[in-house]
Amino acid sequence: MTSPATITDDLRRLPLPELERRLRDLDEHTRELERELEQQRSELAWSNDRLVAEVYQHHGLSVDAERVRNFDAATGLPNRTSFVHRVEQVVAERTQSGEPAALVVLGIDRLASVRDSLGFALADQVAQRIGERLVHAAQGSVLVARIGDDEFALVLSTLRATRDVAAVARRLIEVVDGPMRVGEIDLRLMATIGVALIPEDGTQPEMLLARAQAAMRFARENGTRLYQFYSASIGQNGARRLRLESELRGAIDRGEFTVHYQSRCKLRGGRRVVGVEALLRWDHPERGLISAGEFIDVAEETGLITPIGEAVLRKACFDAARWPKSVGLSVNLSTREFRGARLESIVDRALGDSGLQPSRFLVELTEESLQREVDHTDSALARLTALRERGVRVVLDNFGTGSCSLDLLRRCRAEYVKISSQLIRALGADADVFVIVRTIGALARHFGAAVIAEGIEDSGQLSAALQAGCSEGQGFYLGRPVTAEQMSALLRARPARSTA
Ligand code: C2E
Ligand code: MG
User: Fold this and answer.
1) Residues whose CB falls within 8 Å of the CB of residue 98, separated by 6 or more in sequence, listed in order
2) Which ligand 1 atom sits closest to the C-alpha of 281?
3) 393-399 and 416-419 beta bridge pairing
4) Span 415-474, pLDDT tens digits
5) Which of these, 244, 301, 273, lies nearest to 109 by C-alpha position?
6) What is the reported pLDDT for 4?
7) Hey, which residues does 69 pair with through a beta bridge?
8) Which of 52, 53, 181, 455 lies at a C-alpha separation of 20 to 30 Å from 392?
9) How far apart are CA 329 and CA 41, in angstroms?
């Protein structure tokens, strides 16, 4: 072994730049060791917490019911109650020391669907793995907790500046996203993050948590794998959502929802009406008729879409059963409805009770919602097969602007592909868009689907859609959404023409 004296002599002989380089290496190495130490410390703390929770659980409530209540059973991590309590302590410390800290909420985007399709036991294992990854990744965190079924939270406390939070957020998104094998299943989950800074965004734990959650929801609206810091405008948006949610509940009780219908026409040969799309409307006592676009996301997020969607589907089947047999009926299904355990029985009952032929019934699934099923493609495709076995057909809605893989287009074998109005609007003016639409159309036709142009607003867009290979179209130019009575009248008056 080299003695310390020899090392010193060796070092003395080195040129200055080399000596500096070695010092830098040494520095980096020390930092690395510190990081590892910190990581092991938090792993140890986490394992300890888990162990304690397991032991307490094992021995039943008699040992320390209070303690058990503070931990999440699946992950062993502190739960929401104890997290809030510990945030209180962190806030008190930080207020005294003046050092910054941050509360981070992670929404795990596909955990709910794992639970729905693979069951609670596997979902618990997935949650446990995520917990482990977060503890590993968040080296500067004093606390990692599971605060809800799909939500984890962290307090970051060893921060030098706010930008450190952004770096940690990016790292957390990456670690959640890493491939995961649970049982026989390969999974890929994604996280969306919201951040509230302590003390800038508040000093009350519940308020900080609510603000980080609001920021997370805001990020989620813009996609997944994103992080968002809380801001006042997000707060206003959150308040609006809460109001909207309670108004929606009231609207269900008062029966204020109704359905309007927009015609779908052949673009050639007299623009014959071949179908109608059911579109949800809220007949608000003060604000008048409100379009689905203004509240559908909140209905989906809160689960209210389930009772509302079922009512839409039933009413639409009863209305359409009175219309000519050559006219199909499309109903939009949100992700939640599509995943719902009762979907087939809802469809069966609505078709059976109304007498609408299944071959006239189409479900519209957006490209985005089908892409969300990418981890469970097999169960999503099995569901499509179950619907098809009943004679129901599938429309891949809003196609061309999201991130649906072309392979999914091949595998889902939709009978119709509806090209997004965003593309149709740019069709005449942008040669690149024209090529995109024509290519999507060719691909869709290759897989056996008819191509619908959505959102046609003028004659220019109509002829461009025709040139790009769309055989059917929908849009204000061909017919605005109207009530069931108006649609009945229109179909009686001009059964073979567009309803414009
Ligand atoms: P979507 O399925 O893509 O429906 C088309 C939307 O574009 C409708 O908005 C329609 O009123 C509007 N639209 C149709 N033609 C034109 C046009 O030429 N120009 C313009 N600017 N807009 C046009 P709406 O009714 O607000 O619906 C928005 C979205 O809400 C729908 O998009 C659909 O995804 C969802 N939705 C509507 N009804 C239901 C429902 O009953 N259940 C579920 N789950 N979702 C629904
Ligand atoms: Mg649609």
Assistant:
1) none
2) 25
3) parallel
4) 999 999 999 999 988 999 999 999 999 999 999 999 999 999 999 999 999 999 999 999
5) 301
6) 46
7) none
8) 455
9) 60
At residue 49, the pLDDT reads 57
CA of 461 to the centre of ligand 1 (A): 18
pLDDT > 70 in the chain, percent: 86
Name the least confident of 1-10, 144-153, 175-184: 1-10
Give the number of other Cβ atoms within 10 Å of residue 66's Cβ.
10
How much distance in Å is there from the Cα of 258 to the middle of ligand 1? 14
Distance (Å, whole) CA 398 – CA 404? 10
What's the mean per-residue pLDDT of the chain?
A: 86
Residue 476 to residue 211: CA distance in whole angstroms? 40
Rounded to an integer, what distance in angstroms lies between the CA atom of residue 155 and that of residue 106?
Answer: 11
User: Which residues contact ligand 1 via a Cβ below 6 A?
Assistant: 262, 278-280, 291-293, 296, 305, 309, 312, 332-334, 337, 364, 366, 397-398, 421, 455-457, 474-476, 481
Q: How confident is the model at residue 29 (pLDDT cuts 50, 70, 90)?
A: confident
Q: What is the pTM of this model?
A: 0.68
What are the residues facing 273 on neighbouring strands? 265
Query: Which ligand has its closest atom nearest to the C-alpha of 275?
Result: 2
CA 411 – ligand 1 centroid, Å: 25
The beta strand positions in 256-411, using DSSP E, are: 257-266, 273-284, 288-291, 328-332, 361-366, 393-399
Ligand 2 center–CA 461 separation, angstroms: 19
Q: For the range 42-46, what are the long-range contacts, defined as Cβ-Cβ under 8 Å and sequence gap of 24 or more? A: 42/135, 42/138, 42/139, 42/141, 42/144, 43/135, 43/136, 46/76, 46/77, 46/131, 46/132, 46/135, 46/144
Residue nearest to atom 23 of ligand 1 (CA): 455
> Starting at the edge strand that comes first in sequence, how are the strands of the sheet with 141-148 ordered?
141-148, 151-156, 101-108, 191-198, 227-229
Which ligand does the CA of 278 lie closest to? 1
Distance 278 CA to ligand 1 centre (A): 9
The one-letter amino acid code at 25 reads: D
